[in-house]
Amino acid sequence: MDFYCPAAKLVIEVDGPVHEEQKEFDNEREEYLEKLGYQILRFSNKDVYKDIEMILAGIYDACMRRIDFFEK
Which one of 5, 49, 55, 59 has the minimum C-beta count within 10 Å? Predict the structure, then answer.
C-alpha cells in the first residue's frame, strides 16, 4: 500500500517492476482489503511520471465519490 485515505476507504498503489514478482501477494492483499470495504486504485510508475494530472484527478474523483457514499 503506497497511500490510503481512511475517510474514503481508498487505497492507492503505484506499481513498478517489483510488482511483477509479487503478483500473488498483491492479489491476496487486494482481496483482503476489498473484503474490509476498501477500494484499490492501481497506477503504473510510468503513468504517474507521464501524466500526474490525470492520476491526481482520478484519485480525487474516487475520494469524492467514496466520501459522499459513506456520508449518506
Answer: 49
Output b/e per residue, 54-65; b: 16+ Cβ within 10 A.
Answer: ebeeebeebbee
Specify whether the CB–CB gap between 64 and 5 falls below 8 A.
no
The mean pLDDT of 25-35, rounded to a whole number, is: 92
Give the Cα separation of 61 and 47 in Å (integer). Answer: 17
**Sequence spans of domains, the chain:** 3-71
| CA–CA gap between residue 68 and residue 43 (Å, rounded) | 23
* pTM of the model as a whole: 0.78
8 A C-beta contact, residue 34 and residue 10: no
